[in-house]
């Protein structure tokens, strides 16, 4: 990892290969080796910071790496490759994820990545529908929290209207709408024109949707009026 941190070229060339090699057995072995060096809290903090830095700088394969971190940290892990993961390794991953989300949000706000090059945000964009689906349907609250923070970072980077429209289109329960409102409330102070953008995106995609999803979207748009959101948005539409 130290070598990768010194060269983005090496990092981006090896990320996919690295993820393929990671499973519970490998991670447990690496952790045992790490402990044998007498590593304490300070070394663990340094390791976590290094992992966060590498993910933020990576390109192709970064989404799979983030999913690996989420699955490994989750107490209800569904990835067969992560079965038997040492609880101490889980704790390290649980320390990494909040820092990763925070750094990604800062990176998005600072416009610190070029839209023309392969980067972690492009990977998130390519998989935003899967993230939205997990936000709405995951049975793990901790996983929902981590995915929520990732979606905040992606929305701050760009395509917030597409992400929010996707959530509205797939929301079929009150808890789904609550997830939409929670995400909207976090983004609105930074993206004040967001609701108008969501409406534009919704009415652009509406004719292209299957009838069931179109009905769901229209129902949810009307439901938003109960939160007092629509009048201000329509005024600026």
TrEMBL record:
Signal sequence interval, chain numbering: none
GO cellular component: integrator complex
Domain Integrator complex subunit 5 C-terminal positions: 1-202
Family matches, as InterPro entries: INTS5, INTS5_C
Record GO biological process: snRNA 3'-end processing
Name recorded for this polypeptide: Integrator complex subunit 5 C-terminal domain-containing protein
Organism of derivation: Ciona savignyi
């Amino acid at each position: 990892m130290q070598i990768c941190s010194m060269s983005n070229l090496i990092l981006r060339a090896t990320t996919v290969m690295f993820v393929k090699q990671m499973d519970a057995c490998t991670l447990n072995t690496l952790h045992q080796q790490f402990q044998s060096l007498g590593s304490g809290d300070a070394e663990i903090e340094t390791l976590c910071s290094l992992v966060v830095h590498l993910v933020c700088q990576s390109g192709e394969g970064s989404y799979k790496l983030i999913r690996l971190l989420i699955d490994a940290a989750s107490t209800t892990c569904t990835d067969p490759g992560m079965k038997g993961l040492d609880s101490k390794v889980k704790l390290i991953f649980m320390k990494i994820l909040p820092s990763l989300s925070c750094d990604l949000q800062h990176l998005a706000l600072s416009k610190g990545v070029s839209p023309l090059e392969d980067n972690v945000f492009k990977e998130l964009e390519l998989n935003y529908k899967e993230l939205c689906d997990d936000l709405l349907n995951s049975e793990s609250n901790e996983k929902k929290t981590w995915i929520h923070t990732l979606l905040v970072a992606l929305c701050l980077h760009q395509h917030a209207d597409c992400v929010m429209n996707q959530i509205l289109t797939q929301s079929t329960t009150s808890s789904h709408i609550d997830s939409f409102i929670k995400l909207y409330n976090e983004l609105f102070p930074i993206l004040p024109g967001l609701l108008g953008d969501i409406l534009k995106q919704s009415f652009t995609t509406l004719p292209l949707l299957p009838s069931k999803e179109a009905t769901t979207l229209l129902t949810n748009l009307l439901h938003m009026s109960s939160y007092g959101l629509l009048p201000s948005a329509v005024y600026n539409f």
